[in-house]
């Protein structure tokens, strides 16, 4: 039980926590990582599973990735949470099967091929930042219960509305679904791409997860990324 108490305290979100600009240097930025919302909700069969608790213990040695944000950014990407490989190397979308870095180049959002280790430089070079819905790393999103995702929505909205990028891109439909459920947002039918919403003080665009496990045809994914590029760079 002490281990679970330590874990919930580690990822607890406090309302008076301040969100600050992440320093460029890795050493200090890791300490400034924004923490997830508390996971110490009452344990019930409907909200929690053994696999969920096991993941907290199994990956407790991994540090969350810091927000890479600043004011006046063109684009901010938000993923579900860091994967194991990304947490191990300290950079986003680091697994070799993830197509994020391919899509961001092939769509024309950036004009050169990049690698995960360059994520920290993208605010200055391209006006692009990064954050996550849930900060704690897991092997897959199935290890994050829906209630934990929804509890992190207020932190995400607060963070984005503080920095106010031109466009927020959610990398995965499940992120948008969590936002809709938590906020009781009225939406008749989901469509990929630009969302009609008033939760964020910026444009909100949704693309499929770039994980290699997602079975949506690649050409359809790339088409959405090109639409994203046109919105980001329109005058």
TrEMBL record:
User: Does Lyase count among this protein's keywords?
Assistant: no
Superkingdom of the source species: Eukaryota
Q: Which residues form the Uracil-DNA glycosylase-like domain?
A: 67-229
One GO term under biological process is: base-excision repair, AP site formation
Q: Which Pfam family is an annotated match for this chain, by its short name?
A: UDG
| Gene Ontology molecular function | pyrimidine-specific mismatch base pair DNA N-glycosylase activity; uracil DNA N-glycosylase activity
- What keywords are assigned to this protein? DNA damage, DNA repair, Hydrolase
Q: Does the keyword Secreted apply?
A: no
This chain belongs to which protein, by name? Uracil-DNA glycosylase-like domain-containing protein
- Write down the species: Wickerhamomyces anomalus (strain ATCC 58044 / CBS 1984 / NCYC 433 / NRRL Y-366-8)
